[in-house]
């Protein structure tokens, strides 16, 4: 079925936490994992305790937990520091009446304050909602409104994108910056922190109580609030052990922003549940800066994304030679298909295999992966994590034999499975429409050796540089522009970004196509929604293909774009 299936890259001889995949898979038992947490004994659970305080209690308080660098800062925080700071923020939250179950958002660029705030929010038992710093007014408002957020932590610059008067639930905004003008509902983060006690009573919650709300895009409607609970830490911990292969002395760097699930599950929870030193780099950076970060921090485990690895491949081999990357032991990737060529290139140039991992915002943690002790087949996502049963099923739930393409599905439940789509039960149920299974929305096949191969998304969701963008959200913004009558948005294959956003637009009366207008429209989306959601290509059309019920047929747009047959056109209007 696939000429690549025969190609393998053998595992290195060095030892790994997993050992034999087959044995680990056959003997797996979640109860054994649970025994490694304090709640197994105390019955009390809070992820922030397990990630930070537990290590202090175990005498590791002086170990570096966080090394932060960006253009202007270079700082280190021990587990003890993070314990004290997150306690302080928890106390600040308490003093503003914020308690268990409240939704509290963080909307800031990567900074130590972001990580401290997030931990503090979890410590009071509130549900944290991380927002990517590039979101503009509408994107921010939609998410705060849908979740009914009562508080927000942000910076002076980003505060201007928060439409406070349209958000009646939002009572308190903590602003972290210099010389904050305090007013009704606006609180000076640093001033409050300075006053707060470093001791705090952690809110012990149930395993099924809310932890985090990540908004993610679907093909229709507004973004969905994917809700995860404290119990997810079992998956974060276990995959941190066998997939990331975290060991006591590792220096770990996950390049993702906490605005996306990779940046929390694997940028915060997994590494700190294992008590390892976590490197965080803020700001935008060039290949040289990335390599510098690895060299200066002696990073041993590096978790990034295909779009970044393609950028490095494009930047070439010579630049790699200018840095000492010998500290690297283990490299991983997530977010979109990892091209076989990139795996081969990485193996040759870094002398390390790049381990692809597959999962989703909804799954909360890694589910299908490559492991340091298992041969890699370049182009394959790997095999299910021990404890996870994956299968290719047809639309009726029948399991398909090897090499047949179908729905990539996971047996329910598993510890980090989403527990709700906020305010949207029907959406949630769609994922579980076939009894006993979670339907991912991805298509794939499994080969005779049990390796899974990604084929595509079933819906129209666009994956650009590893970020999932719902075409509907972009289209809705586009039609707010006075010149735009209708818009249809698709992902167009792109060698570096995976896909780019292409918009087909029909104009209103009185407007005519021009290059300036294209630019203006792209800018409009960039400033109203976010830079990563702005179309990189725009094509004007007199009319867009639509169904009789008025739905824009994105698959027809895609077929036009790629010169493919448009398929069944029975529902199209004249
Ligand atoms: C979608 C989920 C969860 C981390 C980041 C993305 C695609 C993810 C892979 C992979 C091929 C992948 C899928 C999936 N995807 N990892 N290793 N190979 N495709 O999370 O934004 O929720 O997107 O990303 O299509 O369904 P997300």
From TrEMBL:
PROSITE patterns: AMP_BINDING. InterPro entries: AMP-bd_C, AMP-bd_C_sf, AMP-binding_CS, AMP-dep_synth/lig_dom, ANL_N_sf. It is an enzyme of class 6 (ligase). GO terms for cellular component: cytosol. GO terms for molecular function: acetate-CoA ligase activity; ATP binding. GO terms for biological process: acetyl-CoA biosynthetic process. Pfam families: AMP-binding, AMP-binding_C. Its EC number is 6.2.1.1. Residues 59-419 form the AMP-dependent synthetase/ligase domain. SUPFAM superfamilies: Acetyl-CoA synthetase-like. Keywords: Acetylation, ATP-binding, Ligase, Nucleotide-binding. Residues 473-551 form the AMP-binding enzyme C-terminal domain. Belongs to the ATP-dependent AMP-binding enzyme family. NCBIfam families: PRK04319.1. This is acetate--CoA ligase. It comes from Fontibacillus solani.
């Amino acid at each position: 079925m696939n000429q690549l299936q025969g190609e393998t890259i053998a595992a290195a001889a060095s030892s790994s936490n997993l050992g034999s995949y087959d044995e680990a898979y056959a003997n797996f038992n979640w109860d054994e994992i649970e025994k490694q947490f304090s709640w197994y004994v105390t019955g009390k659970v809070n992820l922030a305790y397990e990630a930070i305080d537990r290590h202090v209690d175990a005498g590791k308080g002086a170990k570096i937990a966080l090394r932060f660098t960006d253009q202007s800062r270079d700082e280190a925080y021990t587990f003890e520091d993070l314990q004290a700071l997150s306690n302080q923020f928890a106390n600040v939250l308490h003093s503003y009446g914020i308690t268990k179950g409240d939704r509290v958002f963080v909307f800031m660029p990567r900074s130590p304050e972001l990580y401290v705030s997030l931990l503090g929010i979890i410590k009071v038992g509130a549900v944290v909602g991380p927002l990517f710093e590039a979101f503009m007014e509408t994107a921010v408002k939609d998410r705060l409104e849908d979740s009914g957020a009562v508080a927000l932590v942000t910076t002076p610059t980003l505060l201007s994108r928060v439409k406070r008067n349209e958000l009646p639930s939002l009572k308190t905004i903590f602003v972290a910056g210099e010389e904050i003008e305090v007013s009704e509902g606006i609180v000076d983060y640093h001033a409050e922190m300075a006053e707060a006690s470093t001791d705090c009573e952690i809110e012990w919650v149930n395993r099924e109580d809310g932890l985090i709300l990540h908004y993610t895009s679907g093909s229709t409607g507004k973004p969905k609030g994917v809700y995860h609970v404290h119990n997810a830490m079992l998956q974060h911990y276990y995959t941190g052990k066998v997939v990331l292969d975290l060991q006591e002395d590792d220096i770990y760097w996950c390049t993702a922003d906490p605005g996306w699930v990779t940046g929390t599950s694997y940028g915060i929870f997994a590494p700190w549940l294992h008590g390892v030193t976590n490197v965080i780099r803020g700001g935008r950076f060039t290949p040289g800066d990335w390599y510098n970060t690895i060299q200066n921090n002696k990073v041993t485990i590096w978790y990034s994304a295909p779009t970044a690895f393609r950028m490095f491949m494009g930047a070439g081999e010579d630049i790699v030679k200018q840095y000492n990357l010998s500290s690297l032991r283990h490299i991983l990737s997530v977010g979109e298909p990892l091209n076989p060529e990139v795996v081969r290139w990485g193996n040759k140039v870094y002398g390390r295999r790049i381990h692809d991992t597959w999962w989703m915002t909804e799954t909360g943690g890694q589910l299908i992966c490559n492991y340091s002790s298992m041969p890699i087949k370049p182009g394959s996502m790997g095999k299910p994590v021990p404890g996870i049963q994956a299968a290719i099923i047809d639309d009726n739930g029948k399991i398909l034999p090897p090499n047949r393409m179908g729905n990539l599905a996971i047996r329910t439940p598993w510890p980090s499975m989403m527990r709700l789509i906020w305010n949207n039960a029907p959406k949630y149920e769609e994922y579980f429409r076939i009894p006993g299974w979670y339907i991912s929305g991805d298509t794939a096949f499994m080969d005779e050796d049990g390796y899974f191969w990604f084929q595509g998304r079933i819906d129209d969701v666009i994956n650009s540089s590893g970020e999932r963008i719902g075409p509907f959200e972009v289209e809705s913004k586009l039609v707010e522009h006075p010149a735009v009558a209708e818009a249809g948005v698709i992902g167009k294959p792109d060698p570096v970004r995976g896909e780019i956003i292409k918009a087909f637009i029909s104009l209103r009366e009185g407007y005519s196509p021009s290059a300036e207008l294209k630019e203006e429209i792209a800018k409009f989306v960039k400033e109203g929604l976010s830079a990563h959601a702005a179309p990189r290509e725009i094509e004007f059309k007199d009319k867009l293909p639509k169904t009789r019920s008025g739905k824009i047929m994105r698959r027809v747009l895609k077929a036009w774009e790629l010169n493919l047959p448009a398929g069944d056109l029975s529902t199209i209007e004249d």
